[in-house]
Design a protein that fits this description.
Protein Transport Mog1p, Chain A, eight-stranded antiparallel sheet, about 25% helix, about 200 residues
Length: about 200
């Protein structure tokens, strides 16, 4: 596998990880009081497909999402979403032992996202990456939204949106991705999804 192929896989891995795989849609709420996850209908609408959700699963997602994945600890819990097309999403939630540890984790994820485009290009010379910061979402202790576009020398073009938000000691990271550019990114819808994700933590 070429290095460029690996980066493309990282850029849209969460979006395509379960494409073509039959999965059962699970309830968004957890029965034991643990943080709840997004339901498919709470993701930005796709113009040609409904959303499908995998099970809420303990551990880090495999493969890890672009840039933010390096910060995810082993006690992560995640859920993968897909459509019938090239659009997918991922939510990862981490419950920390204290509010300060949760704040530190948010700061670490933001640091990874703030330098995402630069990191990608340093590690993969055949990829051009740009990014945008879309601002803070005023929900609970706050959430922050980013966009990252990657384009390979062979023509592949992917757009990903990321957010990280916190409620108390619990942090959630949401990623949405598809082939394309910023023009196709549903930023307003993704901010709404982010707000919903943070509100559902408790």
């Amino acid at each position: 596998m070429s290095r460029g192929t690996k980066v493309r896989g990282a850029a849209v891995a969460a979006a395509l990880a379960v494409a073509g795989t039959a999965v059962a849609v699970q309830p968004a709420a957890a029965s034991d009081g643990t943080p709840r996850f997004l339901a498919p209908a709470e993701l930005p609408p796709h113009p040609s497909s409904e959303w499908f959700a995998g099970k809420v699963t303990s551990g880090q997602p495999d493969p890890l999402p672009l840039c933010a994945g390096e910060a995810l600890p082993s006690n992560s819990v995640h859920r993968v979403f897909r459509t019938d097309y090239d659009t997918g999403a991922l939510q990862v939630t981490v419950v920390e032992r204290s509010t300060q540890r949760a704040k530190d984790f948010v700061a670490l994820v933001r640091k990874k996202l703030d330098s995402c485009a630069r990191t990608v290009m340093e590690e993969q010379p055949d990829i051009t990456a740009t990014q945008k910061y879309y601002g803070r979402v005023n929900v609970e202790e706050g959430a922050y939204v980013y966009g990252v576009h990657t384009e390979a020398t062979w023509g592949a073009s992917d757009i990903n949106l990321f957010s990280v938000g916190r409620d108390g000691t619990t942090v959630t990271v949401v990623q949405w991705g598809q082939m394309g550019s910023y023009d196709g990114a549903p930023v307003a819808g993704f901010k709404k999804t982010t707000a919903t994700a943070v509100r559902k933590l408790y």
